[in-house]
Amino acid sequence: MRHAPDAEDPDPVDVRLGARLAELRAERGWTLDDLAERAGVSRSTLSRAERAETSPTAALLNRLCAVHGRTMSQLLGEVEARPAPVVRAADQPVWEDRAAGFVRRSVSPPHAGLRGELVEGRLPAGADLAYDRPPVPGLEQHLWVLEGALEVTADGTAHALGTGDCLRTRVWGPTRFRCPGPGDARYVLAVVLP
Questions:
Q1: What gap in Å lies between CA 183 and CA 112, rounded to an integer?
Q2: Edge-to-edge order in the sheet of strand 94-97
Q3: Which of 90, 114, 131, 135 is at 20 to 30 A from 70, Cα to Cα?
Q4: Are 107 and 116 in contact (CB under 8 A)?
């Protein structure tokens, strides 16, 4: 797990991520105002994320992925080195939503020619992540809880999951991941593009 950078030393992943977000916006010929309107995010928040003045939250990245038609793993993979067929545990990219305490490990590197990927997620007790839309409509997800308990709401239906439980869903609308505790939750998410 990465340590939080100090104010004068931005996280290198946040710097590369900000630059990639700015590139994606520029490729479409959008201003910050255009992107803010499309994503439903303030112009200042987008500007700060592009300049790596702040580490983007999972919810912000989800909105931006939806606008750009990418999964979060694809976007994060674009700022990492070219993926290899074997990724050692020590080399798997880890990203943190520090505000929510959410830790996301890209277990399998995304690849343009493949539709599936594996992600490990960790949520501390009490954490609550809400996404207003999927990054790609119709995204197939298989969520397998490895440790702890997780409450997942998809398509308006809440699912209480415990260790060993697996939820399969196709995501069209808002989703919510909540760790009710008492301990942290650790899970594997298999994501398959439609």
A1: 36
A2: 94-97, 102-106, 116-123, 185-192, 139-147, 166-171
A3: 90
A4: no
Element (DSSP H or E) covering residue 58: helix 58-68
Give 63-120 pLDDT, tens digit per residue. 999 999 888 888 887 776 555 678 889 988 899 998 899 999 989 876 665 778 899 9
Helix H or strand E encompassing 76: helix 72-78
Ramachandran region, residue 40 (left: φ > 0; alpha: ψ -120 to 50; beta: rest): left
pLDDT digits 0-9 by tens, 157-193 = 999 999 999 999 999 999 999 999 999 999 999 999 8
The amino acid present at 106, given as its one-letter code, is S
Q: What's the predicted TM-score (pTM) here?
A: 0.65
Report how far residue 95's alpha carbon sits from residue 82's, in angstroms, rounded to the nearest whole number.
17
Closest CA to 106 of 87, 124, 120, 122: 120
